[in-house]
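Entry 12.
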Amino acid sequence: MPTAASKRWLILIAVMLAFVPIVIDMTILHIAVPSLTLALGASGAQVLWIIDIYPLLMAGLLVPMGTLADRVGHRRILLYGLSVFWVASLLAAFAPTPAMLIGARVLLALGGAMIMPCVLGIIRRTFEDEKERALALGLWGTVGAAGAAVGPLIGGALLEHFWWGSVFLINVPIMAVVIPVVFVLLPRVEQTTPGKWAVGQALVLIAGIIGVVYGIKASIGATQSLLFAMLVLAVGLALLVLFARQQLRSATPMLDLSLFAHPALLGGMIMALVTIGALAGVELTLAMELQYVLDKTPLQAGIFLIPIMAAAALGGPVAGYLSNRFGLRGVASLSLATSAGALGFLAFADFNAGGMAVPAMLAVLGLALSIGLTASSIAIMGSVDASKGGAAGSLEATAYELGTGLGITLFGVFMSKVFASTLELPSGLAPPLAERAARSIGDSYVVAGELPATQGNALIEAAKLAFSSTHSVLLTTSAVVIALLAVVVFVLFGRQQQ
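Predicted 3D structure (tokens):
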């Protein structure tokens, strides 16, 4: 019979395995974007929705799912979520149109929203000792980073031999292993939080978050009229205010708003939101630069990105050790400052040049960001009682998903604007084709395929030059944002005793 201590680590193994498909799905799609864009004839707007409909919906669903798990049991919700994610992966793999793929991603979001807060909540409930919990969260971060590292490599290998849908189909055999393991290892009897799960409050919160995020996306991206976007944003904000009032008046609120009074939790959420948003945008930009501009195959692009992900796999336990020894404040701030420096270097680096400078700096970036993100997890989960682990986990996961969704949207819009302003179109291109080609480098490739060879090649070369300039601007901007975040985190973490 396993001892209590060994059982804790077996439970950690189970929930880490449950988290693997989520992180693989997040990064594997970046490598597949060029392939699915051309295969489905997806526009730049459709590609953005394919990527960020998942984090958009998860942002609205995570807190309700986390509080539901606190009340009915993390094991049950986790198994439901894994099953939904399994089915959704099959639907996504065989989607024949961009619209169908977007719909499958909606279902993936539902499954993911059930899984993520349960993973963090189970870790919080299982590890009461602060040092053990820091180590457990570090190992969890390592598995997440390792899954992210394997994602582009697996995606690249699959796309060398199979169609783009194989990047979703890979989840099916993974789930076939994970679900039985979780079923066997997780305890069937667990402590739950008393009180009913208010469906009405959950719907208000979901609608409010989605309304706010969509309103921001639509207004920034100009996908709808500004008046409509602002109306949706206003409705979303009103619903969030209504939800907050419901929580303050309720004897058993769905979400304890006093959690936000903890400086470390608030700082950790801000850190997670901004950092993961910048990282998602940077990864997408690099994947597009490598394939569209440098003409690398998906497998070659995946191999090129291994340093950033492999180094990130080391950051979890390193963060746990450093945080226990030196405190969260210094570790978090220094990791962000280092990340900013790495991004600044990569903004002006020649990716075609030989040598180890670029791979080394990618590794520095991955390690530093991983340490920072794990430090944010330690801060958030250490700020709450075990009984509120699901709620705290859902808040952290919401910060991740909001950061990913808004980060990709902001990067996508910014990328489109900079690309359009720097693209010098070849002469003689029909106005409708010129307008579409200027939207994104993916649209330029699609338009080039419809033109005579000479004109098409000229358009592709012009698009490559424009995207290289865009790439430099985006990475420089990310470096500045991360540097400012380092200062904010230093201030907020300084207000709470480490």
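Annotation: The chain has 18 helices and no strands. Residues 4-187+254-422+466-493 form a domain with the Growth Hormone; Chain: A; fold (CATH 1.20.1250.20).
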